[in-house]
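testing teh design pipeline on a random one, pls ignore if ur not involved
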C-alpha cells in the first residue's frame, strides 16, 4: 500500500485548488453519496448553516464552489454540513518539558482513502499550513499566529446535526490567535460526530476539547488524547484501536523524568502508538510534530522527515509505502 503526499502553495483560491478539486472529486463524490443523496442536506440548508455558525468562511466557500463548477452537489459537499459519517484512529499529545513546546500527532486511516494534501494558504488574510481533508478542511495544522490544532475521533457512535470537524479546525486556524479564541469556537460550533481536539498556541498554552453532537463540549488540560471520551464503553472499536492502552502509555511517558522530546517523539513510530492495521483503516499514515513558536511542522515516517514552515515552504510530492503484516 502507498500514499502520495503533495505540498501545494496558493494564498488565494485559484487554479491550484481547482486542479486539486478536479483530481479528487470523483472519490469524494462517491463517499458523499455513500448513504444516498437524500441523506445529505440540501444547498439552502448548508448555506444557512454556514452563515449561522461559520460566517467568516462563507465567502471562501462561495469562491470554492465557483471554482468547482458551481454544481449543487459540490456546494453541499464543500459545506461539510452533516457529511457522511466515518471513523479513524489517531493519537496526539502535548510536550511541554524544556524550552520547546510541541504538539505531536499520529493520523491513522486507510491509505487509499487519504487525500494527502499539505496546503499553505491565506484565504482570509491569515497564513495557514494544514494537512487537508475534504479539500479545504484540516486534519491538523497551524497558522501564522502559532495556533496549532489536531483532531482524533472520539469513539462514540452517535451522529447528529453539525459540521465535519475538519471544517471547524479550518475555521479555528483562519480566525483564532490563541487558545482562548479557539476554545470559544469549539464551544459554540456544532459537530456531527464525537471528536477529541488538541489545541496549542505560541505562548505554550493548550487544552483538549471533547466535542459531540448530543452534549455540550467539555474541556480539560489533558496532555494526551486518543479515541475515547468520558462515558465511552470499552467496545469492539476501542479494543480494535487500543485507545486506552495508547492513552496510558503516552501519559506514563510524559510523566517519566528521564523522557526527553526526541525519545517521546520516537514513541509515535513504535507500537502501540504506531499502527500497521492499514486494511482495517486504522494504520498510521504520518506523524506530525508541530512547533508553534517557530511556525514549523515536521511530517515524519520511519525512514523520512519532511519539514515545512512559513519561512520555508517546499512544494513537491513524496510517496510513502506502507506494509500490512501478513495474517498468520
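output:
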Amino acid at each position: 500500500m502507498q500514499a502520495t503526499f503533495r505540498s501545494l502553495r496558493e494564498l488565494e483560491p485559484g487554479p491550484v485548488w481547482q486542479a486539486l478539486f478536479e483530481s479528487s472529486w470523483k472519490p469524494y463524490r462517491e463517499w458523499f453519496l455513500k448513504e444516498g443523496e437524500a441523506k445529505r442536506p440540501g444547498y439552502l440548508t448548508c448555506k444557512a448553516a454556514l452563515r449561522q455558525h461559520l460566517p467568516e468562511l462563507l465567502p471562501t466557500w462561495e469562491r470554492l464552489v465557483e471554482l468547482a463548477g458551481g454544481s449543487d452537489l459540490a456546494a453541499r459537499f464543500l459545506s461539510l454540513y452533516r457529511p457522511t459519517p466515518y471513523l479513524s484512529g489517531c493519537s496526539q499529545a502535548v510536550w511541554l518539558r524544556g524550552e520547546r513546546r510541541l504538539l505531536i500527532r499520529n493520523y491513522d486511516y486507510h491509505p487509499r482513502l487519504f487525500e494527502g494534501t499539505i496546503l499553505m494558504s491565506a484565504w482570509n488574510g491569515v497564513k495557514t499550513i494544514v494537512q487537508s481533508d475534504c479539500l479545504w478542511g484540516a486534519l491538523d495544522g497551524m497558522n501564522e499566529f502559532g495556533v496549532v490544532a489536531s483532531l482524533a475521533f472520539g469513539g462514540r457512535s452517535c451522529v447528529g446535526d453539525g459540521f465535519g470537524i475538519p471544517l471547524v479546525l479550518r475555521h479555528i486556524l483562519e480566525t483564532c490567535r490563541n487558545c482562548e479564541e479557539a476554545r470559544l469556537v469549539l464551544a459554540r460550533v456544532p459537530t456531527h460526530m464525537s471528536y477529541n481536539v488538541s489545541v496549542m498556541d505560541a505562548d505554550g498554552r493548550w487544552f483538549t476539547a471533547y466535542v459531540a453532537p448530543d452534549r455540550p463540549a467539555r474541556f480539560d488540560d489533558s496532555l494526551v488524547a486518543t479515541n475515547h471520551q468520558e462515558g465511552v464503553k470499552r467496545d469492539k472499536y476501542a479494543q480494535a484501536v487500543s485507545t486506552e492502552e495508547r492513552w496510558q502509555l503516552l501519559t506514563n511517558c510524559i510523566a517519566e523524568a528521564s523522557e526527553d522530546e526526541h525519545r517521546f517523539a520516537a514513541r509515535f513510530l513504535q507500537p502501540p502508538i504506531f499502527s500497521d492495521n492499514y486494511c482495517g483503516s486504522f494504520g498510521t499514515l504520518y506523524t506530525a510534530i508541530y512547533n508553534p513558536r517557530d511556525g514549523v511542522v515536521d511530517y515524519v515516517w520511519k525512514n523520512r522527515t519532511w519539514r515545512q514552515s512559513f519561512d520555508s515552504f517546499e512544494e513537491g510530492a513524496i510517496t510513502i509505502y506502507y506494509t500490512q503484516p501478513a495474517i498468520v
